[in-house]
Amino acid sequence: MDPKAFHTLSYGVYVVSSWDNGRPTGCTANCAAQITSSPATVMVSINKDNYTNKCIADCGHFSLSVLSENSDPSIIGTFGFRSGRDTDKFENVAWQVRDALPVLSDSCAYIVCRVIGTMDTPTHTVFLGEVTGAEKTSENTPMTYAYYHNVIKGKTAKNAPTYIAQETEAGKYICSVCGYEYSGNIPFEQLPDDWRCPVCGQPKSVFRKK
Amino acid sequence: MDPKAFHTLSYGVYVVSSWDNGRPTGCTANCAAQITSSPATVMVSINKDNYTNKCIADCGHFSLSVLSENSDPSIIGTFGFRSGRDTDKFENVAWQVRDALPVLSDSCAYIVCRVIGTMDTPTHTVFLGEVTGAEKTSENTPMTYAYYHNVIKGKTAKNAPTYIAQETEAGKYICSVCGYEYSGNIPFEQLPDDWRCPVCGQPKSVFRKK
């Protein structure tokens, strides 16, 4: 079995959100799909270790914010490489309540769902949601997972189904929080002290030389 | 609810296949995703009206052939706009048996699965499969659903979850089988008589003027 075969599957990049006792929480996800058109249903797959999984199960509703190529890539790090258990992920991002659920402003569409079914798997729960609200909010191109990897050079969180231990070129600087590999034209050492990881927003000090 | 929001979700283009009493059958699908990495599991969503749905349920196994941007687009029509009930869809395509399942040769990867779970929805069955074999067979770029729509100008089959009744520009020639809208430089009337729809392979005679 060649794990590279799994990399040929195509995905988008989303933030799946819910309420945690009145506080918004959420996580980055790449596995979301429309399942039926009438009634409109959408599925998301969320790792059981993600705090968002428990919140969706408790709340019975979730929202999907669709990131675009113009979305700030630090959203992916904020929602993908930290836990909502002990972090307010929504603290520094613009968000609003749409159809009673929190959605990110810096996205090109949102879909709000009521959970009507679940499928249990060894590590993830697949939530099936009946769509209660949806809107396309910009004409920006939706971000694909391939774009995130190939253009933003982002990495995969360990809780993601697509995670495979990855090799990095020796001598490169890697963000120890999100795995982002610096590949800019300015030598890493000469970046200003207030430079931050473009994916997860962590400071220069968390980067490690491979 | 704005159905355009659903168009911002990202997908690939796949042929999902199984055995029908020893005969290969399959259908085009855009909804496939890796759900867990260890053990590796993959899900596909198949309309209950598709003959392939019954065959997967009976056989207990399915394969996923991942189409690339270099794959012959007529595969999409052959597998997406005809029924395997009364057609041998594999008759005119190259295919082989890999890990005991039929897979298409003109693809960039295949994944073979044993069904370990299902989720019922109003119109589709979500099959969860444990991966028993997988191989990346070329370096070609996997075809995304956006590429199929924007570059190949393909349409959506009525059984697909993403189907929305579509508008077509007046005066254009449309394939009555698959909905492909001709947009070549040669006027449609001047195309040779043996010209065929590049998506589903049907002859010129099935085209209708909008």
UniProtKB/TrEMBL annotation, chains A, B:
Gene3D superfamilies: 2.20.28.10, Electron Transport, Fmn-binding Protein, Chain A (2.30.110.10). InterPro entries: Flavin_Rdtase-like_dom, NADH-dep_flavin_reductase, Rubredoxin-like_dom, Rubredoxin_dom, Rubredoxin_Fe_BS, RUBY_RBDX, Split_barrel_FMN-bd. This is Flavin reductase. Pfam families: Flavin_Reduct, RUBY_RBDX. SUPFAM superfamilies: FMN-binding split barrel, Rubredoxin-like. Keywords: Electron transport, Iron, Metal-binding, Oxidoreductase, Transport. CDD domains: rubredoxin. GO terms for molecular function: FMN binding; iron ion binding; riboflavin reductase (NADPH) activity. Its cofactor is Fe(3+). Residues 170-210 form the Rubredoxin-like domain.
